[in-house]
Design a protein that fits this description.
Number of strands: 20
Strand order of the largest sheet: 4-3-5-6-7-8-9-13
Structural class: alpha/beta
Distance between the termini: 75 Å
Bound molecules: 5'-O-[hydroxy(phenylacetyl)phosphoryl]adenosine
Low-confidence stretches: 1-19, 458-467
Shape: globular
Strand content: 15-25%
Length: 467
């Protein structure tokens, strides 16, 4: 096995892993820290020079702070650079942050977001090669190799999930089934008939697949499926336990975002001690979201990423709004890539009810701690006479549903108590019949916020005449 050469130059890092000859040990995954820092610094300086020279927004921001690319002399200097935020991508829609001429751009993806204009992201040929290489490294870290049969149920299209996983799986030498999202009955048939060994999709969709498989009389536990690569949305340890138990598989958390590349920014290894960040391409920082200052290692804050090798759309200090913490690399797998804690929430996921900060993940954990409740739930926020209410609709198992009233009451009480204790807030729990909450084929939408809808019962929200 070839280990990494001690002297780091781009020549040693390239070529990125290619199909059959690929072995994780030949990648920067195991690079000693001093060499990784050296590589990061040379790439950081190059990317800052490129962004400054080619993207007006970066040049204006750096000029305003009186910083020039030459001022980046060590990695720590990154903290002097300005942040980039999501609205910068919206404000420069569609192509304003591109650092390559259109002739060099071979792919565009877009993310719709929930409000306003979409954001557009671009890739050169080289960017696509980097993306494929990190996805190969990610899949290999989960124990996949040629011979595996991978069902890719991430959506193909403008969403980065489908194509990102697709090229990674192919380049690894595995067999990829590009089934995309949806058509759940066909997914179950494919999983069974093609003897699928690995599944790529959102955790929410896999929960749905498990449920549908059971309804169709297919026991996923008895299929050759052994690995799931789940991401694109926050999920909790409780969901992992549910998936691993019901599916008889090992579930891996994969993280990424369109702005930075797509899936493949970070992945778990079989030790599941956080997600290893491919920090030779993505430089991580964790900051206090209020002050912008770096958080001490191990403490929670907002993840900020700098693309170290992106050509078409480099991003400097991009504020992801994802909440995590960074740890020193000491994983028994031997990877020296710094791990980050799983992303259980986004700073903009949080909602405030009667002065209390609430994250959907807190509610999810409280629900799944109660036997008889299913990982299908919806959070509904309403406002009556100026006062906010929080309702949690939770689906329950068919067994409890068909049980006596007493069992339903007990379950209702336990859920209410569990959620109220977790949040420190009064909630109204509604037990929902099995299959009554809409299933998602991609990212789940758990929160329905009706607080700003005009209600004619609520005088505080009815517009005053003449206003
Ligand atoms: O969701 C890319 C992706 C596809 C990642 C497939 C993993 C698997 P976007 O649509 O741009 O890209 O959404 C990015 O999704 O900022 C996080 O808030 C959230 N997210 C992605 N992966 C995870 C994860 C893709 N593993 C946004 N855990 C990110 C928690 C995640 N949240």
């Amino acid at each position: 096995m070839t280990l990494y050469s001690p002297s780091v130059t781009e020549r040693h890092v390239m070529p990125e892993p290619s199909s059959r000859a690929f072995h994780p040990a030949s990648t920067p995954d195991f690079l000693p820290a001093p060499q990784m820092r050296e590589l990061q610094l040379s790439r950081l300086r190059a990317v800052v020079r490129r962004a400054y020279a080619r993207v007006p927004l970066f040049r204006e921001r750096m000029d305003a702070l009186r910083i020039r690319p030459e001022d980046v002399r060590e990695l720590r200097d990154i903290e002097r650079l300005p942040f980039t935020v999501k609205t910068d991508l919206r404000d420069t829609y569609p192509f304003g942050l591109f650092a390559s001429p259109m002739d060099d751009i071979v792919r565009l993806h877009a993310s719709s977001g929930t409000t306003g204009k979409p954001i557009v992201v671009a890739y050169t040929r080289e960017d696509l090669d980097v993306w494929t290489s990190v996805m190969v490294r990610a899949m290999a870290a989960c124990g996949l190799h040629s011979g595996d049969i991978i069902q890719n149920a991430y959506g193909y299209g403008l969403f980065t999930g489908g194509l990102g996983a697709h090229y990674g799986a192919e380049s690894l030498g595995a067999t990829v089934i590009p089934v995309s999202g949806g058509n759940t009955d066909r997914q179950v048939a494919v999983m069974k008939d093609f003897r699928v060994t690995a599944m790529c999709c959102t955790p929410t969709y896999f929960v749905h697949l498990l449920e549908r498989a059971a309804e169709l009389g297919v026991s996923v536990r008895d299929l050759p499926l052994r690995i799931g690569i789940f991401g694109a949305e926050p999920w909790t340890e409780s969901i992992r336990r549910h998936i691993e138990r019901e599916g008889g598989i090992q579930a891996f958390d994969i993280y990424g975002l369109s702005e930075i590349i797509g899936p493949g920014v970070a992945i778990e290894c079989p030790f599941h001690r956080g997600l290893h960040i491919f920090e030779d391409h993505f430089y991580p920082e964790v900051i206090d979201p209020d002050t912008g200052r770096p958080m001490p290692e191990g403490e929670e804050g907002e993840l900020v990423l700098t693309t170290l090798s992106k050509q078409a759309m480099p991003l400097i200090r991009y504020r992801t709004r994802d909440i995590t913490s960074l740890y020193p690399a000491s994983c028994p797998c031997g990877r020296t890539l710094r791990p980050m804690a799983r992303i259980a929430r986004r700073s903009d996921d949080m909602f405030i009810v009667r002065g209390v900060n609430v994250f959907p993940s807190q509610i999810e954990s409280a629900i799944l701690a109660v036997e008889g409740a299913l990982p299908h739930y919806q959070i509904i926020l309403t406002r009556h006479k100026g006062l906010d209410s929080l309702e949690v609709q939770v689906e329950i198992t068919p067994e409890v549903f068909s049980d006596k009233i007493g069992a339903l009451e007990t379950l209702h009480d336990r859920l209410t108590r569990g959620i109220e204790q977790t949040l420190g807030l009064r909630v109204e729990v509604t037990l929902a019949a099995p299959r009554s909450i809409q299933r998602s084929e991609g990212k789940a939408k758990r929160v329905i916020d009706r607080r700003n809808e005009v209600s004619h019962e609520d005088p505080s929200t009815v517009p005053l005449p003449g206003k």
